[in-house]
Each structure stands twice: as structure tokens, then as C-alpha cells.
Amino acid sequence: MEQNRLKSREEVPEAMKWRLEDIFASNDLWEQEYIHIEKLLDEGEKFEGHLGDSSSVLVSCLKWMDDLSLRLEEVYSYARMRRDEDNRQGNYQAMTDRAGALAVKVSRATAFVVPELLAMPEGKLNEFRAESETLKVYHHALEEILRKKEHILSSNEEKLLAGVGELAEAPSAIFTMANNADLKFPSIEDESGQMVELTKGNFIHYMESYKREVRKEAFETLYKTYGKQRNTWAATLNSSIKSDVFFAKARNYPSAIKASLDDDRVPLKVYDSLIETVHEFLPEMHRYVRLRKKALNLSEIHMYDIYVPMVPETTMKISYEEAKSMVLEGLNPLGADYLKILKEGFENKWVDVCENEGKTSGAYSWGTYQSHPFVLLNHQDTLDSMFTLAHEMGHSLHTYLSNHAQPHLYAGYKIFVAEVASTLNEALVMEHLLAKTKDANLLAYLVNHYLEQFRGTIFRQTMFAEFEKKTHAIVEEGGALTADQFSEIYRDLNATYYGNDMILDPEIALEWSRIPHFYNAFYVYKYATGFSAAIAFARAILKEGQPAVARYLKFLSSGSSDYPIELLRKAGVDMETPQPVREALQVFTELIDRLENLLN
């Protein structure tokens, strides 16, 4: 039988591709900017050792740093997104590597600034801030520097750490290349008996198959392929964890997790409280597994039965055009101004839609301050892909609004709040669909999908967060991590989270080997906290209307002009209490009740 294959990049219609020319019209212009940044680096010499001379020197230096950052953002983003179109393209691999090396050079060139500021008598810095109107813009940024005083090293030590930065990126770079460019999966038999190439992009599609043998084969094939390099994956991830621990120690933090959380000024209790609160609700997760087992009429439930919808009579095939319409309808409560920007993104080639050979898997929103946001998708004509579009456009509008309301210095928002806008979009689209759907089977399908969002975002990401905490602690205590140890920890966590009804197939113990977020440690918990905050915002918007929308849009326009916990608190959500997570999980409980009633 003829085998379906991925399209090459050239075969993808132009209308379905993003327009990276909005950053650089050509690679030659990228090269010119690269050279210009290299020349700008030399300007640091006139500032080094002179920041205490006058407020004007300090202002000039800070402007120079901001300009470098803005230009580097353009150079790195363009190269990386070009590479992501097809990771096999050597020229874009090289450009991305060069951009990464340039980032290290920028770090080295600017490494003197923070130590010199911290060495300056506080009275002098306050004097400069009082006499210079321009320095008022830098107030929050300077406060942030002073807050981290005990973790900033000498100028020479900072330069050394900046130089080590490129080496520290190696585990992530190796994983990315192996996972996206080199890893090939065998073909499997699809629902119609046709042989199709399994890819990371279509894996979940086959895990949602109503034919159990299809999802079982997809599951076993994927993990058998990863298992062939299990020791390599383990060595790579272990190296990444060791790097996290090294940098935490170098900066005088008691642990890697505290070093990571301090970047957002998030207390450790927020992380620990998330895990504790989720554990409180694990009996509800186990109840969900039992309901799934019953609804699918299974004598035993396996890990490959987690994604298939519980309502086999209902399928939703959603084209990209239909997905855009559904997202626009669902986000109507956010008002005309929000929808206008959303349409602009759809119409002006912000989005790269289709999966193709060599393309980076998954989805993301990125972009630059001087251009606009961009979205990478691997659209599969499913309900899940429609929600992915809503999710990534949430990120994009957060970026757009912050870029337009804030100076470049504060336009970029912290990861802690990054998942709020994306998840709120998903929640509003889902609430819209639940409200307008009359068909009982379709309604059950949607409730099931919503439950899966809770499972995937709160429970699953918290399980990931717990995995990260456990693995980093082992390294910090002088231990080493092998493939067997990673797998044992991961398997035990799955047992805890899914409960006694779930048959833990041996393959699931290897799932850690394919999770790219583990190379950006202590990131994933923010999905769970962000989801919880988003549910709180969504409920407020649907209940209060315009006042809640106004608070929310102000939050989206705030960038990093304050600490993330404070930005959320100003908008009405206090993440320093367990309440938002608890309230979100109470919604999860209500949804299980609702689905039980629909299925009876």
C-alpha cells in the first residue's frame, strides 16, 4: 500500500507559512545586523569602570545594553525560527549556532555592568536616580538588580560564567538535534489498514484513535524508538541537571530550584503548595481514570487509553480555517479591540500552520519587539489542534499588547505569567462551546476534552514538576542519574498520579526521555499555576463582563513592569495562596460529575 509521507517544506502552500521576512527581508540583512552587533560590543569599553562617574554615563550604558538586547533578539529569533522550519538545513543550523555564540559575546561584553552597579555606594546610585529623569524608566530594573545582590559575582567571575553559558546550552542543543533532526520512527498501520509514518506531530492523533490496536501500536512504537537511545537520553538530561546545579551553586543559591524561582521572585512555598494541593485532589484523578475505564468498556485500562475520547460516536474534524473561526467566536467576551488584533495575526501571516519534514515538533509563540509575534503549529485538523491555535494566539496577543504598552526593557513577560493568556483563551473557547452545544454526545465529548486539559495541564505538569524536583535533589546530594534511575522515578510518579486502576505499561517509564521542557528546568510548574490563574480570570470575565476584561487586558499590557506574583494580584488572583489551584481542581471535580451524568 502507498505510504502517507510528510510534505517537504517546499510543498507546503505559501499561504500556510509564516512571513519571517517581517524580521529580516533576507539572510544578507541578517548578516549585516550580526556584524553591526559585533561592532557595538566594543562600546562597552568606554563604560567599564566609569558607571559611577555621572548619571549620564550610567544612562548611556543602560541604553547601550538595551539596544544590544533588542538587536540580538532579532538576530537570534530569525535564525532559530528559520531553523525550526526544517532542522536539517545546515545553513540555518549554522546561523542559529552563530546567534547563540553572539548571545554569549553580548553576555560577556555586558557582564561588568551589574557587579559595577552593586559596588557603587547606594547613596550615589540614589543621587543619580534623583537627578536623571531618564533613569526613572529603569527604576524596577535597578531594584531587581539590587534585590539579587548576594547572587551577583565579581566582574571577572560574571564574564567567566557568561563564557560557560554556551557550554551549558549543549545538552539542550544535542537533545533538540537528536529529537527533531535525527530521530525517525517506523511506520504503523492506521485505522484504515494503511501504513503511515509515525511522527512526533501525529503521535497524539493516533493515541486518540478509537481503534485500540492503533493507539497501542503507536504507543509501543514511539517508546521502542526512544528506548534504543535510552542511555544517551539519560546522559544528556543528567548533564543538563548538573549544569543547573552548577550555576545555582556558583550564584550562592541553596538549590537549583530556588535559583530558578528567584528569577521570578516566586517563593518556594508556591511550588510546594502546588504539589501538595494537587496531591489532595489525586483521588479525583483516580476517579477520572475509573470513569474512563468504564466509559470505554475496558476490562483493564492502559497508558495508551488516556487520550482517546470517551464518546466514540463523536468525532470532530476541524480544518485550520474552521479552527480560526471557532477561536474568534469563543474569544468574543474579550471585546472588539482584542479580536481586531487576533484577526490581524490570522490575516498577516503570523502563523506557520503545517507539519513538514524536519520541522520542529509541537507549537510555540515567539517574535520580536520590532516586528510582531509568530506562531509555529503542526496543525492536525483535530479539536486539540484548534485549542492549540487558541493557546498560542493567547501568547501572541500577550506579547503584542505588552510590546505596544511597554518600553523594550519591560516588554518581555516572565514565564510565570506566560501561560495565563494562552490557557485563558482555551478556557473561554471551551466555555463557549459548552454553552452552545445541545447534542448530548458532543457535549460529553467536550466535557471529556476539558477534563483532559486539566489532566494534561495541572496534573501532568505538576507530575513533571515533581520529577524535576526529585532528580535535581539527587544530583545536589552527590548522586548520579542513569536511565534506570530516571525510569524508576518516573514510573513511581505515574503510579501515584494515575492510581491502582491504571496498568502501568513498561514503556511509560521512558516518557521522561522525550520531554523537551526538562531541558529548561522548573519551567513546567508554571503551566499548572498559569492554568489555575487562567480559570480564575475566565470565570471572572464571564461573570462580571467589562470590568474583569479591563483588569485582564491591563495585566496583558504589563509585560515585566512588576514581579509576576504582583501583576496577578493586581488583576485579582493571588497565587501565594493555594486557593486558585484548589478552585481550578474543584472545577475538575464538577466536570467529572457532569460527565458521569452525561454518560449514564
UniProtKB/TrEMBL annotation:
Presence of the UniProt keyword Protease in the record: yes
Transmembrane segments: none
Cofactor: Zn(2+)
Domain Peptidase M3A/M3B catalytic: 206-586
Any GO MF annotation of the entry: metal ion binding
Domain spans labelled Oligopeptidase F N-terminal: 116-185
Cofactor binding, note field: Binds 1 zinc ion.
Keywords from the UniProt entry: Hydrolase, Metal-binding, Metalloprotease, Protease, Zinc
EC annotation from Swiss-Prot or TrEMBL: 3.4.24.-
Pfam families, A to Z: Peptidase_M3 (PF01432), Peptidase_M3_N (PF08439)
Keyword hit for Heme: no
A GO BP entry: proteolysis
Family from the record: Belongs to the peptidase M3B family.
Its biological purpose: Has oligopeptidase activity and degrades a variety of small bioactive peptides.
Protein's recorded name: Oligopeptidase F
Annotated organism of origin: Desulfosporosinus acidiphilus (strain DSM 22704 / JCM 16185 / SJ4)
